[in-house]
Specification:
This protein has 8 helices and no strands. By secondary structure, it is mostly helical. The protein has 2 domains: 98 residues, no CATH class; 47 residues, no CATH class. The radius of gyration is 19 Å and the shape is elongated.
């Protein structure tokens, strides 16, 4: 909990855990549909605790996406496989003619945005009192986003609140 989540060494344990979990599977015997299920329900749920608390930086997201692409397109084969559709299309919802695999960056931002939603909508709670006493509460999310005196986590939450304000207004 005390590490710097903006460094790759912080995320090495998460990536190693995913690779260790994947090493147990017999890839050559999994159909395409089973690999999609594996991506949807196993790979994205393993780092859920970290993704809910910390903003992933671009290097970690690209590493995790690379692992997902390998599972989907060429796992268990030495030769290069043909990629039939772009990764953006794979990450689209099924209703939008995609495969429904989660986009890790959007998923991470949505989970961090949930902290803002909880601050604004929930009443009471020890965690909310702590954030109010330490960071002056949710009202200061949008006004002090540029300050560097707070924790990395709170700065990331403020950046998301600032982006939300820029995109959607007050």
């Amino acid at each position: 909990m005390g590490g710097n989540h903006n460094k790759s060494s912080f995320w090495d344990g998460v990536v190693a855990k995913i690779k260790n979990k994947l090493a147990r599977w017999k890839w050559k015997f999994l159909s395409f549909a089973r690999r999609i299920c594996l991506l949807k329900f196993v790979i994205t749920s393993l780092p859920l605790f970290y993704v809910f608390l910390f903003k992933m930086f671009a290097g970690v997201i690209s590493t995790m996406n690379k692992i997902q692409r390998q599972i989907l397109w060429k796992w268990g084969r030495e030769d290069k496989k043909i990629v039939w559709v772009s990764w953006l299309k794979v990450c689209k919802l099924k209703e939008d003619r995609g495969l429904g695999v989660r986009d890790l960056r959007a998923f991470n931002l949505a989970l961090l945005g949930k902290w803002i939603w909880r601050l604004v909508t929930k009443k009471g709670g020890l965690w909310k009192e702590l954030l109010h006493s330490k960071y002056e509460g949710w009202r200061e999310l949008r006004n002090t986003w540029h300050l560097k005196s707070n924790s990395l986590w709170w700065r990331d939450i403020r950046k998301i609140a600032f982006l939300e304000t820029m995109l959607f207004g007050e």
